[in-house]
Design a protein that fits this description.
The protein is of the alpha/beta class and 261 residues long. The protein has one domain: Rossmann fold (3-Layer(aba) Sandwich). Helix content is 34%, strand content 8%. A 6-stranded mixed β-sheet has the order 3-2-1-4-6-5. Helix 4 links the parallel strand 2 and strand 3. Helix 2 crosses helix 3. The longest helix has 16 residues. The N and C termini lie far apart (44 Å).
């Protein structure tokens, strides 16, 4: 790896442009020995499928907030078995979690926003994990929300980067659409979360996720009581600028066209 992060970023960007997601994954995996793939238990399973073909023992991790839907826990087990992988699970620290719940209860985010809860259940465990690697891979796409409209193929992660160390963040699916993802899932017979057949598109914790109707944007199923520009849990804090994106673009829930099984 180059000593100059800016030069390294430019080199990586040029290498990734015009490539398929699988080729982008190969470039990232070959460039960094210390790299991890973040798996949310949703349609980013396509990255698990691609990455394990390139490096079967790639480091794959997920965050267990303690409030995921039953279907997501079941899906994590299915993915683990289907691909024969070791799935590292990161949990929140018990002390701050207990303090928050004791003081505010289990549903304080409906009143004062999700930032504190996500900070304890997601951000801190993610920070612990990313402190151990030089690069990580996400399933972010530009079409997922207004705050992701300008997601690059690769970036320097200033939110989770350590002092005197550069953390690179790869988004191989950045220019894929929801249709691209689901066409791949159907074509390659990739396992998927059963919630997708019930109208859920963007998946998160059970109290903060609901199904969306036809013609609703997928992110409308997350933190629906907050503004559209607040619909980030903080894992991708760099997506702070509202980018031009058509929130009225129809995204049909999978229950309308489930894969043939």
């Amino acid at each position: 790896m180059l000593n100059d992060p800016t030069a390294e970023l430019e080199q990586l960007t040029k290498a990734l442009e015009g490539q398929t997601p699988r080729e982008r994954l190969r470039i990232a995996i070959e460039r960094f020995d210390s790299i991890a793939l973040s798996f949310s238990g949703a349609e980013d399973v396509v990255l698990v499928h691609m990455a394990t073909k390139i490096k079967p023992d790639i480091n794959i991790f997920t965050l267990d907030t303690g409030r995921l839907p039953r279907e997501t826990y079941e899906f994590l087990d299915r993915v683990r078995e289907h691909y024969g992988i070791k799935l590292e699970v990161m949990y929140p620290q018990p002390e701050p979690l207990q303090a928050m719940v004791s003081q505010k209860g289990l549903f304080s985010f409906y009143k004062d926003g999700h930032e504190e809860c996500c900070g304890i259940r997601k951000i801190e465990p993610m920070r612990r994990k990313l402190a151990t690697v030089d690069a990580w891979i996400t399933g972010q796409r530009k079409d997922q929300s207004p705050t992701r409209g300008n997601v690059p193929l690769v970036q320097v992660d200033t939110a989770f980067g350590r002092e005197n160390s550069t953390l690179f963040k790869f988004n191989p699916l950045a220019d894929w659409s929801s249709a691209d993802v689901w066409n791949f899932i159907r074509m390659m017979d990739v396992p998927y979360n059963a919630l997708h057949e019930k109208g859920y598109i963007s998946l998160g914790c059970e109290p903060c996720t609901r199904p969306v109707l036809p013609n609703q944007h997928e992110r409308e199923g997350r933190w629906w009581w907050e503004e559209a520009t607040q619909k980030e849990c903080g894992l991708h804090k760099g997506n702070i600028e509202l980018q031009p994106i058509d929130d009225t673009t129809p995204v049909t829930p999978l229950r309308s066209t489930p894969p043939n099984k």
